[in-house]
Design brief:
Radius of gyration: 25 Å
Helix content: under 10%
CATH class: Mainly Beta
Structural class: mainly beta
CATH topology: Maltoporin, Chain A
Distance between the termini: 58 Å
Shape: globular
Number of strands: 42
CATH superfamily: TonB-dependent receptor, beta-barrel domain
Largest sheet: 23 strands, antiparallel
Strand content: over 45%
């Protein structure tokens, strides 16, 4: 067998090995349902795209402080959290790699409503992770929900207002100062209307390291009304207050100490008081109205937020509340040979009077080489002198259409297109700025204006063919333009929008006792945006081309009545095909050719296994995950060894309406780096992974 052909051989072997078993089990095929990739309800086995669903049963075994806990066992998905709270670094097939914080290049939705800003930047501070029914992950270009997002879409489905079985009370406590309180209560208030109230309080002291506390308080009111003729309106109003301290990275010496002691005493960085403190109102309303073969699904949504956000060199504050207003008008027409879905969407974000400040409380030291003062450390996150005032508006408008044609009972062919236009307007007045070369604040650049428009066509053609009952072969070709986030455009106004293409085929099997998903993909990207760190200065630039090739497998098997076993594997070969990186050498900038180098941070091999057991009122689950080694920089000069078999476990018992669940993450208390990187000056830093955390939760179900 030729090198690189193993994934194709695995596909063939899978189809041959399970063909007869599927024929025998044809009447007992079980499958999850998805709406994210195609905007129509369809079993995941019939979706001609790599898609994963983390269902209710799996989520019940997790403490769900962070979406990381739900997504970390999905092949092709890399996710970790610096804090353990709502923050997450999320990468899907290399998309999102450039994000220094937050989620980029991936559309995140909740009940069909975008949580992502119009520039595809996503925060999770107003997502109540205790109110999640299931999560769908659609990977790569090619789904109708993902506006300007090359990485695909994450759809969070919350608990329905009409489902009174979701009513419960939770009280949890654990080590690291962990506390969790959750109440959800609702029901029908007359024969047509339902109301549900939720309240959640989560907090962690994270006392294994300094400056790492997290807390959030969230409440919501959901209302649903059945209008007759099957028409339903569901609405929600929620409010969140979140406070999160973001610990800094460490150098090699401090990393060595952490591996020995399990504690991080401070940071090797000057900026010791980073964080995000936010308040968010979120309002949305969704109508579903059916008339014959036509279904109309309008959605309107609005969120407004304030934050105080100290980061490297500067403190951000939204002096006036930021507003996001959006609407999505979707129509679905079922005809004799399939379904036609079409719609229009518009979203606008206004950031008025956003301000940046110097840090007020800082220590200075003398540079022995230049004999000049520089900022050596912050002492608090208090703001000082006003440095910058910014007013910005981002507008996204788009149209989409997809025909799902079923020429025979074996075939489904999806042909569609999104076309999005994103307009940036920015008026900035910079009085002061932090100068990384001198390590102190200096005069700013004055007034600048940015007006930029990106046009993002996203065509798709895909097909699913049923080889046998429960066994589907799929293939797809798709394209997506990637919106540069506003912060990237503001640091480099000459950025172009990357164009990502995806060519993929795979095999999906579904039966009563087992299931699997496997796929092989090739994703070339033109003008890929790359993050560069040059002596502390984070900049963004377009690489010429990157090539991403990969193979993914996930499967589960029910062993008798009580046991379930499973695992996943991802192989990623991501390289720069054309990329020249500017590197500063003193006062000079030298262009270095990185063509042929591997992309940093993405491990070539990622895999894991799990085992679940249920009998009577008892349930238990154990999983273990591995990230292989990866390069720490674009120059490929140093590797981090990754980490092996980080184990998580849960044990629960339910009697009547009561249950107790014990969760333990990183059971064997491994001390590792969640991220290791090296900048162009040769500086190496490590962001540390959390040691063992334990949480005991009592739950009472109201019915």
């Amino acid at each position: 067998m030729k090198k690189g052909s193993a994934p194709y051989g695995v596909l063939c072997a899978c189809s041959l090995a399970i063909g007869s078993a599927l024929a025998d089990d044809a009447a007992n095929v079980l499958d999850e349902v998805s709406v994210t990739a195609t905007r129509e309800t369809r079993s995941t086995g019939e979706v001609p795209q790599a898609i994963a669903v983390v269902g209710k049963e799996t989520l019940a075994d997790k403490k769900m402080f962070n979406v990381k806990e739900a997504l970390q066992e999905v092949p092709g998905v890399l996710i970790d959290s610096k804090n353990g709270g709502f923050d997450a670094r999320l990468i899907i097939r290399g998309a999102g790699l450039k994000a220094a914080y937050g989620i980029r290049e991936i559309q995140v939705l909740r009940d069909g409503v975008p949580l992502s800003d119009p520039d595809s930047f996503t925060r999770l501070d107003f997502v109540d992770t205790q109110d999640i029914e299931r999560i769908e992950i659609a990977k790569g270009p090619g789904n109708l929900f993902a506006a300007g997002s090359a990485g695909g879409a994450i759809q969070i489905i919350s608990k329905s207002v009409f489902d009174d079985r979701a009513n419960n009370l939770k009280i949890g406590a654990g080590n690291q100062g962990t506390e969790n309180y959750h109440l959800r209560y609702g029901g029908m208030i007359d024969d047509r209307q339902a109301l549900a109230l939720t309240f959640t309080r989560r907090e962690m002291d994270n006392d294994w390291r300094t400056w790492n506390r997290f807390d959030t308080t969230q409440s919501s009111i959901k209302h649903g009304i059945q209008l007759g003729d099957g028409d339903v309106v569901e609405s929600e109003v929620s409010y969140s207050e979140s406070n999160m301290q973001l610990p800094g990275a460490v150098d090699a010496a401090m990393f060595k100490t952490y591996k020995r002691t399990g504690e991080q005493n401070g940071t090797s960085e000057a900026w010791k008081n980073s964080g995000r403190y936010s308040k968010v109102w979120f309002v949305n309303s969704r109508l579903e109205m059916q008339r014959g073969d036509f279904t109309f699904k309008p959605r309107i949504y609005y969120n407004t937020w304030y934050h105080y956000h100290p980061v490297t060199g500067i403190i951000n504050e939204s002096e006036s509340w930021v507003s996001n207003l959006g609407v999505d008008l979707e129509g679905n027409y079922r005809h004799a040979q399939g379904t036609l879905v079409a719609g229009v969407t518009a979203r606008q974000e206004r950031v008025p009077d956003s301000r940046k400040y110097e840090y007020r409380d800082v220590d200075y030291a003398i540079n022995p080489r230049t004999h000049q003062q520089y900022i050596s450390a912050t002492r608090s996150d208090a703001k000082g002198t006003l440095a910058e005032i910014d007013n910005a508006t981002t507008l996204l408008t788009g149209v989409y259409v997809q025909e799902s044609w079923r020429p025979t009972d074996r075939w489904i062919i999806d042909a569609g297109m999104r076309y999005d236009v994103v307009e940036f307007e920015d008026d900035n007045q910079q009085f002061r700025k932090y100068d990384y070369s001198t390590g102190k604040y200096v005069a700013g650049d004055g007034q600048t204006k940015i007006n930029k428009t990106f046009h993002l066509p996203a065509p798709k053609i895909a097909a699913s063919y049923r080889l046998l009952p429960g066994l589907n072969l799929f293939a797809m070709a798709a394209q997506a333009g990637q919106i540069p986030s506003f912060s990237e455009v503001s640091t480099n106004p000459s950025l172009d929008a990357p164009v990502a293409r995806n060519y993929e085929f795979g095999l999906k099997g579904r039966a009563a006792d087992w299931s699997f998903d496997t796929s092989v993909y090739y994703s070339p990207v033109d003008k890929d945006i790359v993050q560069q760190n040059n002596g502390g200065v984070t900049t963004y630039l377009n690489a010429g081309k990157t090539d991403k090739k990969g193979f993914e497998f996930a499967g589960r098997y029910a062993l008798g009545k009580y046991w379930e076993l499973g695992g996943y594997y991802s192989y990623a070969d991501y390289k720069y095909k054309e990329f020249t990186e500017p590197v500063r050498d003193g006062k000079n900038v030298i262009n270095q050719d990185r063509s042929g180098n591997a992309l940093p941070f993405v491990p070539r091999n990622q895999y894991g296994v799990f085992a679940g057991w249920k009998q009577g009122g008892w349930r238990a689950r154990v999983s273990a995950n591995t990230w292989g080694e990866y390069w720490m920089d674009n120059a490929n000069t140093q590797k981090y060894e990754g980490w092996e078999w980080i184990a998580n476990a849960s044990l629960g018992y339910q009697w009547s309406r009561h249950s107790l669940t014990l969760n333990a993450d990183n059971v064997f208390d491994q001390h590792y780096a969640a991220e290791a990187k090296k900048d162009t000056t040769g500086k190496v830093t490590y962001t540390l992974g959390a040691p063992r955390t334990v949480l005991l939760t009592y739950r009472y179900d109201f019915r």
